[in-house]
Structures are given as structure tokens and as C-alpha cells.
Amino acid sequence: MGDRLYGGKVRDKILKQIKITAATVYITDIPVRLTRRHGSGDVAGSVKNAILKLETDAGITGWGDAAPWAVFTGTIEANAAALHVYLRPVLIGADPFRIEQLMHDADHAVVGHPEAKAAMEMALFDIVGQASGLPVAELLGGRCRDDIPLSFSVADPDFDRDMEMVKRLYGEGLRLFKMKTGFAGHAADLKRMERFRTELPADADLRIDYNQGMVTHDAIRQLRDVEAFKPTFIEQPVPGHHRAALDEITRAPATPVLADESVFTPTDALLVASQRMADLVSIKIMKHGGMLAGRKIAAICEAAGIACYGGDMFETGIAHLAGTHMIAATPNISLGCEFYQAKYFLERDLLAEPFPIENGRVIVPRTPGLGIKVDEDRVRHYAVETLK
Hints:
This protein is of the alpha/beta class and 388 residues long. It has helices spanning 2-6, 8-17, 76-91, 99-109, 114-132, 136-139, 159-171, 186-199, 219-226, 243-251, 266-274, 285-288, 291-303, 317-328, 341-345, 376-382; strands at residues 20-31, 36-38, 41-43, 46-56, 61-66, 147-149, 151-154, 176-180, 205-209, 234-235, 257-259, 280-283, 307-310, 333-337, 357-358, 361-363, 383-387.
């Protein structure tokens, strides 16, 4: 029975002997199809990611993706250096099954750099999942959902082009749309919301995200105007460190307020949850430093009755898969996910097969590890620097 469950004596031997033997960091520069405009800055032309490849003496390879944004979490240069210089010594020769210990060691090896640590963690889980024959969601405690509603960000400065995309995606089954605001003025934001509500059917779920773009002293007055368009939530209206203002805003409008940039760490989550500074929280493996940290924050929020949303950065399908497994195994991340970049934003993703989206929902893989192989030739094609 045990042999059948775990793959027999060969699998047993792998579990006991596996060690990490090599770590390679590819800095990729992938062209993008769309311009993304936010209250905190623009993303256009291409995005740079630090792709981590971990090799083992068992012949199993794990992959990770660090997707920083300089105005939000960090820079590509810093995260590539964190992986190559500071986290490599933690990994080489290590047992990949000791994920908690290795992540603890990573925090002591280099402060911050959550994107690099997220890449490290997902590569470790990828290895362990393949070695044990289990999807990452099962390693995290087992799935509580098999698919996740997908949200698309309405963030193109050309709103006509944006609306064409929104209508196309609605036809493909998407119902969640998050409009980026705070970059063109309040009147322009209201016009975009009005057009969305006029041209889309009533079941189109509108969410609003200011990305810290509001002036604090005017936020409540302007948000009362926004409520006329019945958004599901309003995300991070003011700068993340203005938590007292966020608290005041949360208590003013009737629409739930979602905290993003105000919650990076479990300590942040404890403060926001204990004082009910927000109604909802965005969970992102890139800002928290991985799936385990994201789940800790979701648990703190759950204890306070605060539901969570699955956000992301400008990621490849590698990181999308990690986020998908985390959400699948975490009941409190219940407001959908934002993993649209691999299919709709990047010129070409790094996965060998398309990131799984069907009828507006992300499908949670059932194959071992992260669940879809990486196209290594494509990684090399987009790599502008390789660190070994």
C-alpha cells in the first residue's frame, strides 16, 4: 500500500537522498502587448523578471519567478543579486524538503527582497511536489477549490482599446474587472466607470484600484462619488504608510476597502486586522515573500473576519502557478485572482503549455509540483543575463 501511494522504493530513495546541486538565475526581458497605467506608475514595452532554476542530484528541476516592480516592492537588479549572491549559499547542498528551515535561513541571509524569496520558495515546492508525486496545493494542506475566478485589470491609458479588451474577455467568460484609477483625475475616472457600467451587462463585477493614487485629504469626498457605480471594493486609495487615513476611509464609505500596499508582512496584517483598518486584504506572494507567508497573512485576516483577494505583480506563468496553488489551498483567499498576465499581457509566457484558464476561471493543476513544465529554450531566448 505504501509503495503504491508514494511511488515505491525508488521514490522512497529519492525522498531520503535528494540535495540541491545547482542554482541558475536568468534575468529575462519579455515584451508586453499592453500598457498598464496605475496610480503609482506605468508599465510598458517589456518587463524584467529573475527566473530561478534549481537542480538536484535526483535529476529533478524546480523553477521560480521573482517579479519585482521598482515603485512597489524592489528592483530586478537587487532581486537577482539576492538570489545569486545571498540565497545561493543557503540552497546549494540543502535538502529541498526543509522548506520552512530554508526560508528561515533566507530571512537571516538577506533582509527584504520578498520577490527573490518567493522565487526560491516556489522552486523548492516544485521540486518537492515532483519528488513526492503531489501538486503543490496538496503539499499546502489540500485544495479547497479546483478553479478560481479570474480578474482582468482595466489599466490601458487608451480607454477605447481597454473597453474592446474587456468586452472580448466578457465574451470568454470573465466577470471580474478591476479598473485602475488615480492617474488621470477624478472626473476622468468617473467617466470611465460610467462607460463601463453603461456598456457592460449588469453581472460584470467592477472593482476599483487607486494604487495609492489619491490625495489623502480629498479621498472620502471623491470616493462617495465612486460609490454610485457600485464597485465590489475600492483598493488602496491612499499611500500604504498612511494607515490612519486608510482606517478613516474604511469607516466612511459603504463600499468595502481593500488594503494592498498597507500589508506586506504578518506584522502589518496583525495591525490592520486588529484595528480593522480595512475590510479586505490583497495577498501577493511577491510582496509577502512566498506562499507560506501569504497563507500566514490570510490566516490572520480570517481570524478578524477579513476576506482576501489573490493579487499579483507582472509575473510569468511560473509565479501564477504558485499563486494558484496557494489560493486553492487557502479558503480565506475567496475574492478571485489576478493572474491574467501570462495569457493576456506578456508577448509570450515561459510555460511549455498555456497557463490554464477556462471560461473566465483559472484551473488548478493536478499534476506534480507547480504542474506545468517550463520551456527552458524560451527562458534562454528572453534572458539578457545568466548568473551561475
